[in-house]
């Protein structure tokens, strides 16, 4: 088999010469005759990124392949040396490159690279957006105008309408809501749909339900708040849609106060409408968050609470960008805002923070796999924009 591989390599090499192209490292790495160095010089550190799907990084003699460029499609490479290498009768210009972590390094034909840093992208999120909270300007987007299922991120609209009804009045915060729905009690006990346990005929204050819905993402608490705000579950959902329409969110459509899909809500008696799920675009989710933060800034203080006891139960905030959590970065100053997950919607997260000397940023990632690491990257990229400066 080795002889066959050698023959194929020599044929490819001959074809490249015949076509008049500059030969890239197409010969097999076990070739007896490696590349010879004609000249080498240091160059000013220059950023490059992948030009096409072709190319690989080798050691200088081309006896060992380091890695194919396709394994690092969004990496910025930094060249510090340039060499003219000779293979047979053909010469080519090669660059010595490293990634930013210096974990991958080697030589590559210059024609496989393009000057400049790699364009920013998120590889896991199906839709995402970064918005300047001060101006409302979108500074980066990926499929941001496509309506998608958003799971518990939907609760931002529920919290907005709840705070609108509370209107800052302590009497409303302390208003007691009696739980008479066996469906909500059953939902609260579900491992997949519940979280904050309800007792039948027990009274909870609006404040308690607010924190349970916000921090613990309690679906039953969100529905109970919606019934209080709207008078019934159906009336509240119509309020959600009316509010979205008043903000010119043409594609946004709600069927649930909690973000659960009707396929889950049906067994508890809370299915509504013909569609199965709330569907909102990443841009419109960011706009909802912007309205919420601007009109009710207390959510930023509440959004930083890691956990708290509510009616004797611990409500845990699942935002892992907060201080003390795994993905925390002090420079980003994250103080919100809302997580979400269903199998249909995937992992969703609305983040917000305000870096020193910058405008506040709002980020949204929908149907992500690495929602916190990608949010971190998105925030840093947004802050690199000059328009985000104070």
UniProtKB/TrEMBL annotation:
Keywords: Carboxypeptidase, Cell shape, Cell wall biogenesis/degradation, Hydrolase, Peptidoglycan synthesis, Protease, Signal. Residues 1-31 form the signal peptide. Its EC number is 3.4.-.-. It comes from the Bacteria. Residues 123-369 form the Peptidase S11 D-alanyl-D-alanine carboxypeptidase A N-terminal domain. GO terms for molecular function: carboxypeptidase activity. InterPro entries: Beta-lactam/transpept-like (IPR012338), Peptidase_S11 (IPR018044), Peptidase_S11_N (IPR001967). It is an enzyme of class 3 (hydrolase). Pfam families: Peptidase_S11. The keyword S-adenosyl-L-methionine does not apply. PANTHER family: D-ALANYL-D-ALANINE CARBOXYPEPTIDASE, D-ALANYL-D-ALANINE CARBOXYPEPTIDASE DACA. Belongs to the peptidase S11 family. This is D-alanyl-D-alanine carboxypeptidase family protein. It comes from Levilactobacillus fuyuanensis.
């Amino acid at each position: 088999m080795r002889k066959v591989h050698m023959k194929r390599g020599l044929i490819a090499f001959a074809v490249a010469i015949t076509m008049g192209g500059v030969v890239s490292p197409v010969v097999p790495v076990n070739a007896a005759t490696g590349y010879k160095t004609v000249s080498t010089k240091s160059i000013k550190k220059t950023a490059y990124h992948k030009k096409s799907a072709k190319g690989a990084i080798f050691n200088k003699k081309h006896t060992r392949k380091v890695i194919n460029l396709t394994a690092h499609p969004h990496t910025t490479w930094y060249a510090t040396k340039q060499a003219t290498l000779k293979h047979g009768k053909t010469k080519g210009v090669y660059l010595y490159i490293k990634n930013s972590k210096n974990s991958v390094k080697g030589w590559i034909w210059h024609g496989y690279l393009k000057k400049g840093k790699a364009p920013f992208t998120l590889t896991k999120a199906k839709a995402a957006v970064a918005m300047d909270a001060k101006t409302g300007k979108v500074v980066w987007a990926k499929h941001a105008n496509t309506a998608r299922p958003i799971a518990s991120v939907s609760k931002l609209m529920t919290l907005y309408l709840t705070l609108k009804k509370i209107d800052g009045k302590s009497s409303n915060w302390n208003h007691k809501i009696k739980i008479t729905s066996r469906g909500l009690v059953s939902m609260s006990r579900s491992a997949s749909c519940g979280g904050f346990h309800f007792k039948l005929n027990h009274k909870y204050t609006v404040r308690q339900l607010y924190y349970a819905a916000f921090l613990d993402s309690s679906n039953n608490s969100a529905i109970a708040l919606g019934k209080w705000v709207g008078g019934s579950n159906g009336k509240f959902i119509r309020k959600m849609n009316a509010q979205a329409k008043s903000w010119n969110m043409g594609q946004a459509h709600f069927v649930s106060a909690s973000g659960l899909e009707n396929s889950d809500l049906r067994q508890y008696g809370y299915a509504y409408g013909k569609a199965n799920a709330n569907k909102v675009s990443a841009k419109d989710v960011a706009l909802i968050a912007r309205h919420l933060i601007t009109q009710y800034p207390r959510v930023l203080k509440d959004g930083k609470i890691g956990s708290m006891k509510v009616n004797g139960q611990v409500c845990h905030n699942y935002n892992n960008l907060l201080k003390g959590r795994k993905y925390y970065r002090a420079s980003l100053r994250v103080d919100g805002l809302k997580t979400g997950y269903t199998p249909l919607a995937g992992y969703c997260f609305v983040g917000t923070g305000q870096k020193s000397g910058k405008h506040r940023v709002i980020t949204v990632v929908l149907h992500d796999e690495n929602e916190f690491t990608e949010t971190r990257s998105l925030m840093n990229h947004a802050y690199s924009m000059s328009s985000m400066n104070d």
